[in-house]
Protein: Aminotransferase class V-fold PLP-dependent enzyme
Organism: Cohnella hashimotonis
Amino acid sequence: MESLLNKQLFIGMEQCAWFYSGAETPPLKGSMDAINDYMTRRSEGPAGRENNAAIEASCKANLALLLGGKPDHISFLSNSSEIISTIAGAVAFRPGDNVVVNRLEFPSGVLPWLVLQDRGIEVRFVEHANWRVTPDDIMAEVDDRTRLVITSHVSYLSGARLDYRALYQRLKETDTLLLLDATQSLGAVPVDMNETDFLVCSSYKWLLGIHGIGILGVNPVRLEAFMPRSVGWRSVTDMFAPIRRSSYEFHRDAKRFETGYPSYPTIYALNYSTKLLLDTGIERIENHILRLGDELIGKLEAMGFTIITPQEPQLRAGNVCVASDRGEAVSEYLQKQGIYLWGGDGRFRASIHSFNDSADVDRLIGALSGARETA
């Protein structure tokens, strides 16, 4: 298979095979141009600020198209961990309430709830079966004291894709909110923000952006009256009202979660990369990722590796995870060969994106043949 996105669009792809997208993606040349545009615009004073606002609006519009939502339902914070902690602080928990998480979650999706345990909040863990968690598994832990379920769309650990739509349909019959982490899926496969209450995503992975932004999608259907407990000048309708009248009023849209200026260099870069993804087509990207994933999984299995990612295309996305108690060593060995992937947590992970091709897969398989003792 040929790549869907030309490698020439990226910086530094001439010599390496990049299977590192679950951690971060290679930098786009267009992102560099976008950041330079930000720096140039900043020299224009007030006009530069006006352009910042226009680029921010454009970026949110792009994300809304990717998510099937509206720009007003999207806000920018510093990172995904901040967003999850912000939501944890805003939920009106009472002693005896509980939160449901699963054992395949990234630490940022677990730690904010553990902090609440000293307030009498129970954290319920859903165990996985063969590296998979299903909506049934999660719902078995939900009761009338469950205030929130948090889950990743695609697991960073196993690469398994959860049917969050089916989960949300059942949660909508309760008072339990759903927080969906799309960090390992948005930009690789279709995601619908209307099928969750909150959606969180990082900027520097599958969206082909850079570090500096956490994306929050807020579904207004069940969250119109949900207000954060942190506040800043961007959160309120009149930034001077607290000073002049000792009062304030939150924005009614997702902007109420934004406390101050976001990282505009990141937004300029993300505006470029999300437009590129939209022009390419997420369904085309998904099809490419899954087909190339089939190719990689077949060759890994032929070599005798144990794949912990589901083989069924509908149950995975871009991450292909291989069981290994020496994942770090495998990653370090391959890095010396110019092949980048992530190793640790009892496995190594090859992440396939739109710029990967069959030549990359063959290069990885060839290098793994020489690393069998390491693996």
